[in-house]
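Fold it.
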Amino acid sequence: MTVVDPEVTRVKFERELGLWRKNEETYRRRGWILLGRREFEVDVGFLGRVPLGANVIPAMTACVRLDFTNYDVWPPSVEFINPFTGEYAAPPVQALVESDEGPRNLVVQSHPETNRPFFCVPGVRQYHDHPQHSGDSWLLHRRSGEGSLATICDRIWRTMARNVVGMQVGLLALPGQAKLQFQVVNAPGEAGPAMWEQARQAEEAARAGQAQVTVPLSQVPPQVLAALGLVPSPGVAPGHEEGL
């Protein structure tokens, strides 16, 4: 359905892409990769750092398609996709933030219109289309910048890429077969970045003293230990109110 003159939408969409190009070097250092664009859509992947032994592997922990159709009478739609095919795919990591009740996941598992996981934050079409958010109209946020390409990407990066802390490996043994299971894990808030900074400082000290790089377990934030399954986790708070 067209509610905005496509030429008006095109001007606003190109403005968003122009702002991206002005900052693309910064975005690249963060791991934001613009994978492609069509008409009023743009695909963006987000790279997180995954430690594997002494190596750090870049891994695409989130990939989304933002659809700016009818922007900005409508907010952009955000769909999680497979970076290889461009088709819908559930995200491999949670979008964790801190709250008074513990870690909250901003990816809600099922939208009533699509039955797909969605990124539940103001400024995203799926959030404002949800019946439980009927009192939080997009028009209340339209001038805030929350629906801009950069703002949405920053929220995804902070909750799904910047805060990645490691890889959890499990072995499932069944009669006649064994299966290794891998899961990228992250921690809410600044716990993940703080741990990476500790590792960087330890590496610099190791280079200076020719010692092995270690980060004492006592210095690891409890959110990170919980994410890696090393201590009991309070669990991720249920529901989709985390986007409120």
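The two ends are 28 Å apart (CA to CA).
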